[in-house]
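stuck on this fold:
=====
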Amino acid sequence: MLKDTNCGSLRAADIGKKVVLAGWVNRRRDHGGLIFIDLRDRSGTVQVVINPESLDSDYAIAESVRSEWVLKVTGEVTARPEGTVNTGIDTGEVDIAVQELEVLNAANQPPFYINEDSDVDEALRMKHRHLYLRRERMQRNLTLRHDIVKYIRDFLCERDFLEIETPILIKSTPEGARDYLVPSRVHPGQFYALPQSPQQMKQLLMVGGFERYFQIARCFRDEDLRADRQPEFTQLDVEMSFVERDDILDMMEELYAGMAAALVPDKTVNRPFPRLTYAEAMSRYGSDKPDLRYGLELIDVADIVLKSEFQVFQTALSDGGLVKGFAAPGMADLPRRQIDELTDSAKSRGAKGLVTIAFDGDWTDPKELQEDQVRSPVSRFISIELMRELATTLGAKGGDMLLLEGGPSAIVYAALGELRQEVARRQGLINQDVLAYAFVVDFPLFAAEQKDGRWDSTHHPFTSPFPEDIPLLATDPSKVTARAYDMVCNSYEMGGGSIRIHNRELQEQIFRLLGHSKEAMEEQFGHLLSALESGAPPHGGIAMGIDRIAMLLAGEDNLREVIAFPKTQGATDLLFEAPSPVGQSQLDDLHLRIVEPKS
């Protein structure tokens, strides 16, 4: 080894010890003869002091050193002089009195500061990812990610799970997202697909009798990107035989609560994790991944507005829609421009507008509300008595603003669900030190409406309906409830799963509703259907996003900050310049021809 000690490990107890260190120059300061260098490795930093009187090496070498150079330092651990102790770092009580100095490699000036957490243009930090990874924040994030995966492995292995790898090159089957395809050289004109998840393979492992499986699985989906999505991602994949839903959810709660307590003990985790039905989550929060760190629940005010003269809401109700709202605390004085921003947000989710009602004064009892304390474009249609009812129902007081939306349920939930989050952000209602987990259960098995005479799965086609709902598959599939569940936290979907179909007849019935012919079933899913006739046990599982839990525990708001080599929003890798063209010989080997897009 070129070093015998890690920079960040040195403490006052090491004073007098001779050490050999190696690392990068984090900072260099020349104090007229004495040169101070903060030397950094993965473990942390320590200050080394170069004094020409005690240096055996050429002092000119020390004078030439700059940031990010790689050095080997031999010296003695000494106590820092009185008054110079740095309490901000773990090694702040000691210095290294350098005796020998060796430059292992010089470095060009980096394109951005590495020793401070300043903003860096995304293109720049992606192009120079190897440098960005040196930042303390990225070192900390990826170390945390490692700890998360280790905790998961230890937890599941202690509970008799087997970690089993599944193939990366598989058959393309319709599972909801677009596949990444890999052409076969050996079989011209045929393709493998990269797995969207190991879904069918883990079910086949249950048929194979393994009973308890997990995998830290790489998955691939050719979808448009966003802050919490990448084209390739990592998930914890779990499957169990002879289980019910609550067996899986109880274990996931124990795993994730224990993980947080062990790895981020400064964060608070709510326990037990609430279990909300899909209908309840949508009704109360306007989202199937609700943020439970604050209130602002959506409340139905149909009975009140029906007594008003406001025709817009009455029409929405007569058309079978909803009228809901919530009180935004302390937002009565919101400027017109910001109200317009909220209205635009609602419109972007399909709403025709947004009704706002501001309450002035410092009253707490709605009975005290006076007519001149109401400011709203609709105040002439809603009497002061009904305004008091609205304030009572929505829990408003003086200084608050009511946000009301009417229309089809999907639009009302989408608009108010987003506004709820926006109000919480604006008003500082979000506690960043809380991890508010919840399970959302009892999803519809199918999307609300048929498309082209077929249904779409809400989750995936292997999800089992509740046994009592199976007769509805023949009469009204829209009313069938899935034995599916998601785990959510702080407005993110952390993962999801279901109890699976383990009967061929039921699986074929689902495939038919999804629009698959008998021939297509055999071609695309024959392997699975055959397995279900081979003594398939009742089984279920869940898949949890590793990237996403790392992002949450690290306190980041973008997946790219917890992935070593991520893709950009446009699915490109700026470091390797991928995707990129390939040579004609490679295309010839694969029997492929590039067709230029039409102009």
Notes: The mean pLDDT is 95.
